[in-house]
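FAQ: What does the model actually see?

It sees only this:
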Amino acid sequence: MSDAVHLHTHAPCGLHCLHIDGLAVRRGDHTIVHDVSLHAHCGELTVLIGRNGAGKSTIMRAIVGELPHEGRISFSGHDGAPAPRMPRCGYVPQSLALDPGSPATVRDMWYSFTSRLPVFLPRRRRTVENMMAELARFGAEDLADKQIGQLSGGERQRVLLALATSQKPDLLLLDEPVSGIDNEGLQDFYTLVDRLRSQDMLVLLISHDLRFVRTHADRVVLIENGTVAAAGKPEDVFRTAEFAAVFPEAAEGGVSG
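And it is asked to produce this:
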């Protein structure tokens, strides 16, 4: 592991900081990730980078409880003591299995995720107003009655971000959320992430956009062969031999902001 790794050498920070110690995920006799330890501060953007198949999404799915795992995942409060409650978690997965021919609208999806009532039942005025206000935070209020299958990549991600943050989570996990988004949509997304981070939210993001990572990330974790190869500030990680081995073209040509 590179000398750039700085794990558990931090001062106590704000509410609900994430600690992972010795995380391992196995599928039968196959070990997918192993010996993963990292710390992520609230109010910061921590980005997981690495090759496809390195284990980044597996780590994220273990954090949200989708996959059984070994090791310890815990959260601390502002004084470094264990958090008094489990944090509220928002999660935007890498992809959704959507039927492009489905008549379901954004409104239908929102109701199905936020209520146990059938989507065809009318909602209270306050419920509708709250939904529209949350969509408006991401410039998506005009999409409420658009069919999900007709959303562009950028529109879909704005809706999913609105949904993921509607319950004011302490921890927001974004698994390659910019797939299929055009350049204009990318800039909008980056602006949104910066705004969320400023609200003392812990944001954990998987990204292959190294220019974005260098410019916006507070902390970078390089995952290689199912474990942490390097971690620290972007400029520190990008100078490591481990980064050069995974991203030789970026290391040779430099990654400009």
